[in-house]
Specification:
By secondary structure, the chain is mainly beta. 12% of the residues lie in helices and 41% in strands. It has a five-stranded antiparallel sheet with strand order 6-5-4-1-7, with no helix packed on it.
């Protein structure tokens, strides 16, 4: 049997059904806590509450701590994988870090856009992953995109190969 563990990002409780809570007392998955989970063959995930009840969870409510590859493949965040990382148009810093080394951005083939006075290079997170993989890089990948005011840190491979997650934010240059 596949082992699945999830960490909750927010509290999840049973739905109200006809104005009443559907489920036994104590049926809750609490934010910040880890729980065992199960999946059906389609990848639907249910966390197992402390009282033994199962609660279905939705994208954005949890992160995988441990899951088999077939589940992670289903749950790959296509939306996040399509996030565009751009160099230009106000973004002044992009760092790609693999195994504690900063990868030279010039090793990647960037799409280029030139509009009037703005020149921009961009790739999606998925394109960054596949280009690094094709060049023989493997391991956990961090992408930091930031400017003087704020930034976002993305991580790939921490909870499954090719799986991108938002790892954190910065308040300007980190």
């Amino acid at each position: 049997m596949d082992i699945i563990r999830i960490r909750m990002k927010q509290n999840v409780r049973p739905d109200l059904l006809f104005g009443k809570i559907h489920g036994k007392p104590g049926t809750i998955l609490r934010a910040g806590m880890e729980y065992p989970a199960i999946s059906n063959k389609h990848g639907a995930i249910s966390g197992i509450c402390d009282n033994g009840e199962k609660l279905g969870v939705k994208p954005g409510e949890f992160n995988f701590v441990e899951a088999p590859k077939w589940v992670l493949d289903i749950w790959e965040d296509e939306e996040l994988s399509r996030t565009v990382i751009s160099d230009g148009a106000g973004v002044t810093g992009i760092k790609i870090i693999l195994k504690d080394r900063i990868i030279n951005n010039g090793k990647l083939l960037w799409h280029e856009t030139k509009d009037a006075d703005i020149e921009e290079k961009h790739l999606t997170l998925k394109e960054i992953y596949w280009q690094l993989k094709a060049k023989g890089y493997n391991g956990i990948i961090y992408v930091w995109e930031e400017d003087a005011i704020e930034g976002t840190i993305y991580v790939c491979g921490n909870h499954g190969e090719g799986l991108w997650e938002e790892h954190g934010t910065t308040r300007g240059y980190a």
